[in-house]
């Protein structure tokens, strides 16, 4: 194996969190490879908000500037590919990619994000990130005071309705079938003028992802400007689980305060470990993870565990 294929740290996932980890490690003089398949979760959203200094930029603009700044560090390389397999070696890990390359490193960081699972409602995935929104802090200001819906039910539908009522008074909870809210929850929403509609949804009628109407299975429709929802998800990358990294009950990779997973030498950062889903948080976690990985490498050197 040539030295060109040997790294201190391989970061799988080169979006906001992976790039932030790489910057901390590059500045710590570590030899780093970022492997990225180019599919960040926010790629369909036209503008990203609520990240200081970058408010209103496109997701791509933020990522491109980040990549430029990170790859200025001589010891950091960016490789466009999909990591397909990771094996443990005597001194670390071996990563295979879909391009057929094999790379080795002492430590691994997974900054691989999550994949949202779209319901099978016509038009839903086309509106995702444009007028079907995951977070009011990211996109709520732009649709403030508009006719807005929540796509949800039960405890989560109730809590999300309370939250979104801060941004608009014209709010309906669409339960897409029979409401499972308690009598008390329904009464609370009613007291706050939040409507509940149980009709089953057939389609989201839209123009280029901009929602026009919700079409119900009974043929009726309702004009709505934006919908919020929290979708079920899966880990974007199955490799951490294949390696034995434990997941939390909610499906996130389990980490400790130093961002270590339950497998030695493997760290994780960003959306794959937390519900707090913002670019700012992904960057913050990436920076911390990079620093923690560097600290572990230093500690190992001084306790002679590795060269
Ligand atoms: C629709 C939408 C809109 C959003 N809007 C905003 C907003 O306006 N403001 C805000 O602050 N936050 C927003 N967010 C949240 C924000 O986008 C995420 O918190 C952030 O992208 C998480 O960064 P990450 O690096 O952890 O993961 P991601 O950005 O999802 O990146 C993960 C990366 O890992 C790569 N990857 C995965 N598996 C592999 C593999 N096996 N090999 C190689 N690469 C791999 C992927 O291709 C991807 O590039 C939005 C999220 C969504 C879904």
Q: In brief, what are we looking at here?
A:
The protein has eight helices and 17 strands. The chain has helices at 16-27, 59-70, 124-127, 136-139, 154-164, 183-191, 239-242, 279-302, and strands spanning 6-12, 32-36, 76-80, 83-88, 93-97, 102-110, 114-116, 132-133, 148-151, 171-174, 195-197, 201-207, 210-216, 221-223, 226-228, 233-235, 266-268.
Supply the number of helical segments: 8
Structural class: alpha/beta
Mean pLDDT: 96
What general outline do the C-alpha atoms trace? elongated
Number of domains: 2
Q: Which ions and ligands are bound to the chains?
A: flavin-adenine dinucleotide
N- to C-terminal separation?
17 Å
Order of SSEs: EHEHEEEEEHEHEHEHEEEEEEHEH
The CATH superfamily name of the largest domain is FAD/NAD(P)-binding domain
Radius of gyration: 22 Å
Biggest sheet, open or closed, and with what strands and sense?
A: 7 strands, mixed
The fraction of residues assigned to DSSP E strands is: 25-35%
* Uncertain parts: none
